[in-house]
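Good morning C.,

I know you're traveling, so I'll keep this short. The sequence:
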Amino acid sequence: MKRILTITGIRPDFIRMSKVFEKLDENFDHIMLHTGQHYDDELSQIFFKELFIRKPDYTLETGKNSRNHYEQLAFLSKEVIKLIKRKRIHPDLILFLGDSNSAMVSAPLFKEGYRIGHIEGGMRSYDRRMPEEVNRVICDYVSDFIFVYTPLYKERLIAENKDSKNIFVVGNTIVEVVREYMPTGERTKNYILADIHRNENLSDPEQLNHILKYLDELGHRTGLPVKLVKFNRTQKIIRKHKLLKDKKNIKIAGPYGFLEYLNLQYHAFGVVSDSGTSQEECPLLGVPVAVPRNYTERPESLENGNSILIGETKPIPQMIKRTLDFFENYSINRKDIKWLGNGKTSEKIVNILKRKLK
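The tokens, ready to paste straight into the viewer:
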């Protein structure tokens, strides 16, 4: 039986990989390595419990042993390869998902001669301020097999001189997860949910303050409280610069497990998020999402009316007007979310690997 090693380390990737893990366990000798990039219970273990993800075979402590991007990569590059050799794992394929520093370790593994597979390949924002953009480009470059969510991502990879025979359009792994845990009942729509955590919006406190002013004014205009999801890095900047002073409409909330957060998105009047995941989950939930970024790696979400870009530093009245127009007039049907796939992504990935790893 062929042996596949999966390397995963952050909250969104555990969620997206949950069904893939199950299929790999059923069809391969599957070894699961948790890098520990997100290591506390709020950001890791709770998702294992909620989504019935089995215990990893090996767990590193990347988050505890490194404080920033380059330390994480240095720790992973050494410790992952040492573990594989010490435990004599001998994988036929090492499989990654996404664009975190855990996926970036694909580069030193490639140099050691291992075959690499990448789920979520071909995404491009073309915004080089994003550490994730660098990670995903490099992981794609060293991968033998690339699983992409949409035909557009395949076209981008072909334009980057990747062999089309090893690029597979499989749909989005998030669809089958959200469908299984879809909230039900009438949406309350009595608050706005906000999630601001990307590097582009946190590198300058003034820029973060601009977005917080916009959120505060959005709450004032709608008469609804704004629930700002707690992210440690965001909170440190807010506290250091006292950015929530006089912003009475914003309340810090969470952090949340996956099921609770899915429910929060479902019942929101609208979501304001710089997370790429929200541009996929919210359309499945029938919820509008405004994205405070200048670029996105998910253009299909914009093209199908699932989300809008409102910019990072545009005038607040302009951001408010665009957001309210979008939230108040939002509607969506099945055709608008067809780009996300049919909910059989994990099965497609496993069937392709069974053919290719003979």
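Safe travels,
E.
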